């Protein structure tokens, strides 16, 4: 969908709201702009100038005068009511649309192929859901609001000015580009310098962040003095840019005031001269009341131009945010073409399988292997050898380029993803704990499980004892960032896997940042979990490896050797050298 | 305290800036009066004192047109234009002074804060909160800068215009003046009432947005788990509820916010109409001010002042928000700048030269108490000594106090009891700078800084030649550098993020070798290297730097087993020490760890 189509799709069903908003704002503007006219009429009721002499006529016109006053009061009230309706309608509509965009974007996060999540920085995707959508709300809709208001009031003001006096009206229309030109000029100039300022600011932030985060290293290196000097250097550049940026942005108000004062003076003097000559040239048709109305309209007329140009930068931000959102929403969904259900898997076969993450970097080439049910499979290899790639294929997070992965002779692509994944329980090294209680986190694998079942799973996973030491036990709220040590997080994810009670388990044994005691708990729990199940383990413990039925040795993403411990030692290949380097 | 010192540097700007601004403000107040005079004079009607004195003033400029009325109009108009031009120019002078002073304050503040953060001990900084410190450096300093900017620009102008307009209205017709006076508090009340109500709601909106942000980041991190458990729908429903709640909260605050415009519009409109009504009746009733009955020109002029009062009031409320925020930020900056470092650096003992085999380091019954919270990482009764050129190995689980122990050597913290002796003197008797010149400390998370490889190497020692660097890189097995076409000039991005963890660790080791220090500390700093490389690096260092004293921390026995002295630590205590062979016999925990790693762990 193009940006326009997308935008239209959001406002399509809001026609009624938009109509109400436009009608309300039209009423408000008419009311607001009738006031100067009424003030002018009132003044003309008070008196007129004849042959250079001001004659009071209020006594004769008292009824008319009071009528105008009453109309004025009424308009003030009606205007404010409709202004409220307008603002309220626009605000409500904005939030409803924001809700739709946000929910759609989040749903999209969950429906795109996992490749998209892997390949994008999480910070960028998060920004899409949170910040970009806020930008759209602030930018698009405030501009929309300002634009309707502005355009309508410009039109009405022009009409009003022509009603009062067409000569002065033409003068104002000729003069008004002055204001527009001035504010546009200031805006572009300012924008350029703020952009420069922001980029220097970003450099400075990066510079300070890397030293502050590693503040202790900086001190250990005795680098502080030099780091401060370097910071000051960039900070001085920022100062110079910020001075220009702030100075140029401070032109907006004074220059607007200046232009307005100029127009006010010119129109005022022209009006006065016209009043003087109206006696001799009736075509000028100017009165003191009309002049008053006119001076107000001059003010009103320039206002929308300034207001619209002041929200232009917000609009630019919103536009680029919306383009980003639109691009993301336009991504292809991860379509699950699989139809078949599968359970009780007896055999997993890699059949001439080729796989790569990027087209030009072939990883797995022509891989053939069969894994029987209830067997132990160990995946070994140096860090970064792509041990998780096999898991990505097994769970169908990714599909092979060529060849096939078969479960009981059914191509994995023909199996429904949810049905396939129901056969697996998984404990990865990147433990995932979400905001919620411990119980919520454990129950995640089986939402129907009772509290007792969850606690039982925790006991099996050896998580029970540490959970009981927490202030609120199973009901302690934990989050991804705080509360638990790495080892404790692993125990909870193991409990989660236990609760799922699946036929096949996928485990990552890596236990960095875990103390010796917890490590023992984890390995015990792993052993329990693997018992009587098909297990596929990213192995780090020798005991796991040696007791495995099949060892897959990976290097640079590809499976270079496979077999059991003894057959691999005999091969004297990579496995042999890894094994001996450890214990030489 | 510190911030006020920085602010005081710009005192001249706070006086001169607003003075220039006042010229414009004064003209802004005069222009409507001139307009009124021109109207009165052009119509040959009666005129009050103000008009007559302006007429006298205008006569000074001579007669240019035969019709006196036209003469007044043209000269008056020209003067009004001139006032506009002069006002604009003086304002711009003020704006420049403001921008200059504010950006200086911003820079001074950032420099001071950065210096504070970077020199503060990590312990003190963490007690204060690192994130808060970063916010203060970036956001709060900017907020104070904005405060200065707007104080010079508008701090004096806004109240002056409002007061001036009110005074003139009272002089012109105090009946109407009273109307103006009463709308000022009314408008202020409405705006502040709405703002207060809304700001409460904003807090709850913000926390709802934080909640959505947490949900999203949980969702992104757990994408595999969610898919594995087939919970996409569940996640979407959870988010949907949160998003709906956010919308309803935002609509609620919008309901309140939408009140400002309509209410102020109706008040100003009613005031305008009242001006005409009261003015009309004052004229009818012959109400005399300034020696004359109220004139129609007075009404025109008063509506101008009303507009000015209203516009400036809106500015004033924005100004109050800016100042409130600035003052809060000011206090936050002070709270950071006032932290006293818990590591004192006052003594300046010269560090003696030691020979191979001399006792370079000694811990004498050292205790570290962090207070009650972090009992497990504190140290209890640590005593040992180390000779120059020897290797000390420290092994123990997480939280056993290994890192705390070596951090004492760098004086990142000080002992609560007992003394650390470096070269036979209390380690606290040396200046921090000199002490840290003698020690090269490597942590697991190696840090590189934006620049080039050469720049990063020179951080350790600015005098090193390219040959020195190349040698150090070779010893640390950072040979990959030589594969880059631009070698030492190769770019290093922030935090060295264009290198892998293992590459960063090797570069950091090379850098600390260049430091020519007495003691090299490797705190789990080869964790990302494979065993072969790890061993090669250690052997290279041993061969090339025989005088260097080494302290190696690891969870792997194989990394430290060759050390002359090994400390086995648990819960902050040394539970055994000695050589590998001795410990295998005497320390069951050491033996178990060794055996379990031999038989149990397999690292490639």
Description:
The complex is a heterodimer of chains A (584) and B (604). Chain A has helices spanning 3-11, 15-46, 62-111, 114-119, 122-164, 166-213, 215-220, 224-249, 252-278, 288-310, 312-329, 387-394, 417-421, 438-443, 451-460, 464-469, 486-500, 516-530, 542-546, 565-571, 574-583, and strands at residues 47-50, 53-56, 347-355, 364-372, 376-380, 402-407, 410-411, 424-427, 436-437, 477-478, 504-508, 534-538, 550-555, 558-563. Chain A is of the alpha/beta class and 584 residues long. In chain A, strands 8-11-12-5-13-14 form a 6-stranded mixed sheet, with helices on both faces. A 4-stranded antiparallel sheet of chain A has the order 4-3-6-7, with no helix packed on it. A two-stranded antiparallel ribbon of chain A has the order 1-2. In chain A, a hairpin with a 2-residue loop joins strand 6 and strand 7 (410-411). In chain A, helix 3 runs antiparallel to helix 5 (122-164), helix 5 packs across helix 11 (312-329) and helix 17 (486-500) runs parallel beside helix 18. Chain B is of the alpha/beta class and 604 residues long. Among the domains of chain B are: 1-169, ABC transporter type 1, transmembrane domain (ABC transporter transmembrane region fold, Up-down Bundle); 359-599, P-loop containing nucleotide triphosphate hydrolases (Rossmann fold, 3-Layer(aba) Sandwich), CATH 3.40.50. Helix content of chain B is 63%, strand content 11%. Chain B is built from 21 helices and 14 strands. Chain B has helices spanning 2-8, 11-42, 49-59, 68-119, 122-128, 130-155, 157-172, 174-221, 223-228, 232-257, 260-284, 296-337, 402-409, 432-438, 453-458, 466-475, 501-514, 531-544, 557-560, 580-586, 588-600; strands at 288-289, 292-293, 359-368, 379-387, 391-396, 417-422, 425-426, 439-442, 451-452, 491-492, 519-523, 549-554, 565-570, 573-578. Chain B has a 6-stranded mixed sheet, with helices on both faces. A 4-stranded antiparallel sheet of chain B has the order 4-3-6-7, with helices on one face. In chain B, strand 1 and strand 2 (292-293) form a beta hairpin. The relative contact order of chain B is 0.08. The model of chain B is unreliable at 372-377 and 599-604 (pLDDT under 50). At the A-B interface, helix 2, strand 2, helix 3, helix 5 and helix 6 of A face helix 2, helix 4, helix 6, helix 8 and helix 9 of B.
């Amino acid at each position: 969908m193009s940006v326009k189509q997308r935008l239209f799709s959001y406002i399509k069903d809001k026609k009624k709201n938009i109509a109400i908003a436009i009608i309300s704002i039209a009423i408000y503007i008419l009311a607001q702009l009738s006031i100067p006219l009424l003030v002018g009429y009132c003044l003309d009721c008070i008196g007129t100038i004849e042959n250079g002499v001001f004659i009071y006529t209020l006594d004769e016109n008292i009824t008319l005068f009071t009528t105008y006053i009453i109309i004025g009061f009424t308009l003030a009230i009606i205007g404010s009511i409709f202004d409220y309706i307008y603002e309220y309608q626009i605000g409500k509509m904005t939030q409803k649309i924001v809700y739709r965009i946000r929910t759609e974007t989040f749903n999209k996060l969950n429906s795109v192929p996992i490749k998209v999540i892997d390949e994008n920085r999480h910070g960028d995707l998060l920004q899409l859901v949170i910040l970009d959508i806020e930008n759209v709300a602030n930018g698009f809709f405030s501009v929309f609001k300002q634009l309707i208001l502005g355009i309508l009031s410009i039109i009405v003001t022009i009409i009003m000015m022509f009603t009062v006096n067409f000569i002065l009206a033409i003068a104002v229309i000729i003069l008004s580009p002055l204001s527009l030109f001035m504010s546009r000029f200031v805006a572009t100039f300012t924008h350029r310098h703020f952009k420069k300022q922001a980029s220097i600011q970003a450099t400075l932030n990066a510079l300070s962040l890397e030293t502050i985060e590693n503040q202790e290293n900086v001190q250990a290196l005795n680098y502080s003095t030099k780091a401060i000097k370097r910071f000051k250097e960039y900070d001085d550049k920022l100062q110079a840019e910020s001075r220009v940026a702030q100075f140029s942005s401070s032109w907006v108000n004074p220059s607007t005031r200046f232009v307005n004062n100029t127009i006010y003076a010119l129109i005022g003097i022209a009006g006065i001269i016209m009043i003087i000559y109206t006696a001799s040239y009736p075509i000028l048709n100017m009165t003191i009341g009309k002049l008053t109305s006119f001076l107000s309209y001059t003010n009103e007329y320039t206002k929308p131009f300034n207001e619209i140009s002041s929200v232009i930068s917000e609009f630019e931000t919103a536009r680029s945010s919306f383009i980003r959102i639109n691009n993301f929403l336009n991504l292809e969904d991860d379509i699950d073409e699989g139809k078949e259900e599968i359970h009780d898997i007896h055999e997993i076969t890699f059949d001439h399988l080729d796989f790569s993450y990027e087209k030009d970097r072939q990883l797995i080439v022509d891989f053939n292997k069969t894994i029987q049910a209830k067997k132990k499979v160990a995946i070994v290899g140096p860090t970064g050898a792509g041990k998780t790639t096999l898991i990505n294929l097994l769970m169908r997070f990714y599909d092979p380029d060529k060849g096939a992965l078969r479960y009981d002779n059914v191509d994995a692509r023909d199996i429904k993803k949810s049905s396939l994944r129901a056969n697996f329980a998984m404990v990865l090294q990147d433990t995932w704990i979400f905001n919620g209680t411990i119980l919520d986190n454990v129950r995640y694998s089986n939402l129907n499980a009772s509290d007792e079942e969850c606690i039982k799973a925790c006991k099996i996973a050896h998580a029970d004892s540490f959970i009981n030491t927490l202030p609120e036990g199973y009901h302690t709220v934990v989050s991804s960032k705080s509360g638990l040590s790495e080892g404790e997080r692993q125990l909870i994810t193991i409990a989660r896997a236990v609760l799922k009670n699946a036929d096949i388990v996928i485990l990552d044994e890596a236990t960095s940042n875990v103390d010796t005691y917890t490590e023992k708990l984890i390995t015990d729990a792993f052993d329990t979990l693997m018992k009587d199940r098909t297990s596929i383990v990213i192995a780090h413990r020798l005991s796991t490896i040696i007791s495995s039925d099949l060892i897959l040795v990976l290097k640079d993403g590809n499976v270079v050797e496979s077999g059991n411990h003894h057959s691999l030692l005999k091969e004297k290949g990579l496995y042999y050298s890894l094994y001996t380097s450890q214990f030489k | 305290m510190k911030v006020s010192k920085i602010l005081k540097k710009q005192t001249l700007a706070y006086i001169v800036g607003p003075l220039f601004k006042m010229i414009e403000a004064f003209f802004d107040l005069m222009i409507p009066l001139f307009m009124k005079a021109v109207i009165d004079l052009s119509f040959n009607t009666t005129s009050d004192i103000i008009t007559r004195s302006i007429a006298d003033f205008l006569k000074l400029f001579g007669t240019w047109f035969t019709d006196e009325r036209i003469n007044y109009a043209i000269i008056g108009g020209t003067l009004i234009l001139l006032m506009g031009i002069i006002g604009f120019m003086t304002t711009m002078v003020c704006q420049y002074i403001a921008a200059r002073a504010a950006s200086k304050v911003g820079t001074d503040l950032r420099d001071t804060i950065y210096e504070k953060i970077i020199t503060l001990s990590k312990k003190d900084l963490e007690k204060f909160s690192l994130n808060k410190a970063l916010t203060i450096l970036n956001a709060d300093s900017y907020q104070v800068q904005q405060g200065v900017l707007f104080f010079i620009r508008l701090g004096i102008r806004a109240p002056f215009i409002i007061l001036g307009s009110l005074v003139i209205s009272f002089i012109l017709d105090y009946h109407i003046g009273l109307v103006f006076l009463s709308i000022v508090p009314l408008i202020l009340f409405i705006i502040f009432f709405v703002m207060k109500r809304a700001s409460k709601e904003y807090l709850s909106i913000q926390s709802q947005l934080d909640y959505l942000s947490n949900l999203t980041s949980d969702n992104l991190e757990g994408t595999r788990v969610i898919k594995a458990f087939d919970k996409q729908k569940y996640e979407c429903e959870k988010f949907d509820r949160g998003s709906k709640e956010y919308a309803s909260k935002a609509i609620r605050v919008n309901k309140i916010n939408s009140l400002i415009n309509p209410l102020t519009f109706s008040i100003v409109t009613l005031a305008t109409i009242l001006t005409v009504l009261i003015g009309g009746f004052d004229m009818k009733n012959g109400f005399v001010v300034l020696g004359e009955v109220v004139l129609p020109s007075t009404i025109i002029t008063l509506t101008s002042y009303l507009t000015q009062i209203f516009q400036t009031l809106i500015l004033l409320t924005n100004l109050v928000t800016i100042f409130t925020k600035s003052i809060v930020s000011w206090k936050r900056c002070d709270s950071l700048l006032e932290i006293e470092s818990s590591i004192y650096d006052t003594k300046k003992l010269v560090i003696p030269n030691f020979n191979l085999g001399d006792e370079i380091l000694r811990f004498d019954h050292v205790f570290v108490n962090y207070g009650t919270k972090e009992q497990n990482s504190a140290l209890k009764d640590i005593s040992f000594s180390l000779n120059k050129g020897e290797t000390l190995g420290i092994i123990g689980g997480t939280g056993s106090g290994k890192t705390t122990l070596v951090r004492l050597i760098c004086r990142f913290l000080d002992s609560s009891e007992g003394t650390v002796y470096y070269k036979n003197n209390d380690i606290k008797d040396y200046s921090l700078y000199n002490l840290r010149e003698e020690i090269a400390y490597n942590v697991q998370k190696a840090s590189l800084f934006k620049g080039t490889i050469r720049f990063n190497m020179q951080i350790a020692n600015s005098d090193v030649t390219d040959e020195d660097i190349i040698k150090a890189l070779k010893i640390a097995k950072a040979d990959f550098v030589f594969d880059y076409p631009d070698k030492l000039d190769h770019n290093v991005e922030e935090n060295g993020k264009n290198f892998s963890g293992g590459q960063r660790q090797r570069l950091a080791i090379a850098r600390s070798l260049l430091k020519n220090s007495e003691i090299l500390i490797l705190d789990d700093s080869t964790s990302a290297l494979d065993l072969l490389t790890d061993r090669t690096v250690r052997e290279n260092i041993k061969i090339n730097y025989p005088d260097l004293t080494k302290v190696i921390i690891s969870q792997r026995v194989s990394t430290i087993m060759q050390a002359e002295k090994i400390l086995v630590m648990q819960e902050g205590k040394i539970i055994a020490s000695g050589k590998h062979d001795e410990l295998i016999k005497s320390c069951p925990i050491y033996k178990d760890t060794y055996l379990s790693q031999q038989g149990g762990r397999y690292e490639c």
